[in-house]
Each structure stands twice: as structure tokens, then as C-alpha cells.
């Protein structure tokens, strides 16, 4: 199995020594240079020298998105602004954006991480990497771009949108690796069909897809339609951007690049660290970053860790694909519902297209969850009776999977808004 950086295959014992050394120097530096962390550590009487082993990590305080907002824009940076060479920001649904900064060394480390992800997805310097993540404050576009260049591949900086033009260039330039959100990959496949572009006119072989939750069923669909090997890539701006973890050829979880980040899974309610295999909230500590290093950053993403060795030869732990977020988890009449669960059910029912939205409303103080899903053009022209049957089937299957009753609305082909970046899966109209 090919890899970009030998760190990925380090013996565990040596890797853990490296992590301890890096954790110590990170905590030292943060204590010295970031007043926020000095206060937090002083509050619990913790001195940087108190870190004797990796287990001491769990004694450190958590960092949250609110901490970043409270110190908006640059308050948590650990170096003077003159050493910051790049800023990115992510817009949340509410409040101020989260702002992150990188030193020149951070940009190199990040590019190295993304180069590793491209190689894990089967890429090499021979590839033409079609970057259809947005360029700008979002980390997706520039993140993949620098990674492709670091690898020595050819970066094609498309950014999102203008799908027909993307496809024409894909054909003319011979793009081999597609980088975009999974929902946009499906959108591209659909527009390709509409344009009458035959699959053998494009040279795509792999997809590096992420930035939003998706299911294995959606992977099957993307792989069949685009005839590529689709790899899940995970990351978040606060921690670095894309390149925190990636699926190797085994596609049994995403390797977390542990020489740069220490992952933990905690119980989101109690903050207690959970053992491997148990599902909970993902937490990351940066141990190889200068501009902005976060201790035990709570991602609100739900996953679990798998410490068993991977046949690919990488020794870094694997996180299970993200099951949803603690905060886009919908609570419908007391039942926790993740859009990904609904997606997994929908994708197994023939006759419906992979485009859906969940609309939640409150009618006479009762939550109503409506699943809006597009049918395929063939089904759309069927008899009413067949459509009703399909609707009933979807309702029964979703209900029995979630344990909560739902309404189903079949939608005309192409009536649900297509995404060019992160798809909007949930519309919550409840006023609480
Ligand atoms: O989405 C970074 C990124 C760009 C990742 C390109 C992968 C590819 P943010 O905009 O800060 O950064 O959003 C981070 O997106 O906390 C997750 O909730 C979600 N997310 C990212 N990757 C995945 C994934 C980028 N593979 C937030 N599966 C994270 C599920 C993902 N959710």
C-alpha cells in the first residue's frame, strides 16, 4: 500500500513517545503565550510540567466553539500576527464566524496532511486533481489545492458552482480525482447525464469527498454513477481544515493523522472519556501546529475509534464515519434522529433519487417530521396507485428504523435544491 509520509506507518510505541513530546511542548507554549489557556490551566492548578504520560491529557480542560467566539477574531492565536501567513474562517449558522490562523510552517504541515489523504485515496504525482470545494475563507478549496501541489500532482482550482463548465473541463483536461462534497458529486453525476456526457469521456478514478455527513449507501450510488472509488475525508477549520482523517483503500474507517492530532471520544453529557468502540463526541488536541493550537477541542461530531490494526499498514487509529452532530441531531417527540439514518433507509429503496430534505414543524404542540424525497423520472410517470405504494413503503421503513412516525412527501424530479457545497438536509420550522 502506498503512503505519502512514513509517519503514517510508525510503530505505535514510537508514535506515542512522539505524541507525548509534542503534547508537552504544545501545553508549554500555550501556557506561556495564550492568556486564555494560562487562565484555564491556572484555574485547575495545572502546570505544564504536570504532563507525565498521555493519560494526563484527560486532566486538561476542553475548548469549545464558544471559546473561539468569545476570543474573536484572533484572541487564541499563539503567535504574533506578523507570523500568521493565512486566515480562514467558517461561518456557523448563528453568531460570529470562527477564525483560524496559520504560520508558514502550519501551511506546510497542512499541505503534507492533505497530500497524505490524496495518496490514501489512490492518488500520485500523475494525477489531475479537480478541486470543486469552495475557494475562499472555507478551508476546502485551498486545503486540497496545496495538498495536490505538495504531492506534485496537478491542481485544478475549479471551486464550486457552474457545474456544466466543471464537467466540460473535466473532459477536456482529463481530471482524474474529484474533490468536492458528496452531495455535489451526485449533482455533477446528474448534470453529466443531462448533458449527455458518456462516462468514458471522463478519466475520473477517485473521489475525495467530505465536509458533510454521508452514508455508505450514498457511497455506493456515487461509485456506481461516476465509476470512481469514493473516499471519505474529514476535517474542520478549528483543527486544521481537511486532512484530519481519510479512508484508505480498505474503507473501514478514517485514519486520524495522530502525529498531528490526538483524538478522544467523550460522553457529550458528562465529558467522560469513552473506551475504543464506543460512540460519542469526537475531541481533538493539536500537537503539531503553531498559529492556533487547541487543547481537547469539542467537535460536536459523533463517531467512535477503532484501535485494531488496519490491513493497509497505516498504524494510525481509525474513526468511524461521522454519524451526525450532537447539534444537528433532531429531537422529534423525544427521539434522537440523525439525517444520516434517514438517508441510509432511503438509499435502499428503488425508485427514489438520492435527494432529500427533512422538514420539522410543530403542529398543535406536536412535532411533525416530514421526509421530502425525489422520485426518479420513471417512477414519477407511474400510476398514482404505484406512487402511493412507494410512499407507504418509505414511511413504514423510515418509521420502523427511527422508532418515530413520519410523513412522507414524494417530490418531482429536480424539485429539491441541488447543493454546490454542503447540502442543507434539515429545515426546522419549529419555534421553540
Ligand atoms: O468542512 C473542512 C473540510 C473541507 C473537510 C473539505 C473535508 C473536506 P468546516 O467548514 O469547519 O470544515 O466544517 C467542519 O463539517 O465538524 C463536521 O461536522 C463536518 N464534516 C467535515 N467533514 C466531514 C465528513 C470543513 N467527512 C464540520 N463527514 C465538521 C461528516 C464532516 N461530516
What topology emerges from the helices and strands here?
Elements: H1 12-33, H2 35-43, H3 65-70, E1 86-90, E2 98-102, H4 104-120, E3 128-131, H5 139-151, E4 154-157, H6 163-173, E5 177-180, H7 182-195, E6 206-210, H8 216-226, E7 229-236, E8 241-247, E9 254-256, E10 261-266, E11 280-286, E12 297-303, E13 305-306, E14 318-319, E15 324-325, E16 330-332, E17 335-337, H9 339-346, E18 352-363, E19 366-375, H10 377-380, H11 384-402, E20 407-411, E21 426-428
Parallel strand pairs: 3-4, 3-5, 5-6, 6-7, 18-21, 19-20
Antiparallel strand pairs: 1-2, 7-8, 8-9, 9-14, 10-11, 11-12, 12-15, 13-14, 16-17, 18-19
5'-O-[hydroxy(phenylacetyl)phosphoryl]adenosine binds at residues 90, 133, 138-140, 143, 210-213, 232-237, 241-242, 299, 301, 322, 325.
Description:
- A hairpin with a 2-residue loop joins strand 18 and strand 19.
- The strands form five sheets. A nine-stranded mixed sheet has the order 4-3-5-6-7-8-9-14-13. Strands 10-11-12-15 form a four-stranded antiparallel sheet.
- The protein has two domains: 1-326, ANL, N-terminal domain (Rossmann fold, 3-Layer(aba) Sandwich), CATH 3.40.50; 330-428, ANL, C-terminal domain (GMP Synthetase, Chain A, domain 3, 2-Layer Sandwich), CATH 3.30.300.30.
- The mean pLDDT is 94.
- It has eleven helices and 21 strands.
- The protein is α/β, with parallel strands linked by helices.
- The protein has helices at 12-33, 35-43, 65-70, 104-120, 139-151, 163-173, 182-195, 216-226, 339-346, 377-380, 384-402; strands spanning 86-90, 98-102, 128-131, 154-157, 177-180, 206-210, 229-236, 241-247, 254-256, 261-266, 280-286, 297-303, 305-306, 318-319, 324-325, 330-332, 335-337, 352-363, 366-375, 407-411, 426-428.
- It binds 5'-O-[hydroxy(phenylacetyl)phosphoryl]adenosine.
- 5'-O-[hydroxy(phenylacetyl)phosphoryl]adenosine (DLL) is lined by residues 90, 133, 138-140, 143, 210-213, 232-237, 241-242, 299, 301, 322, 325.
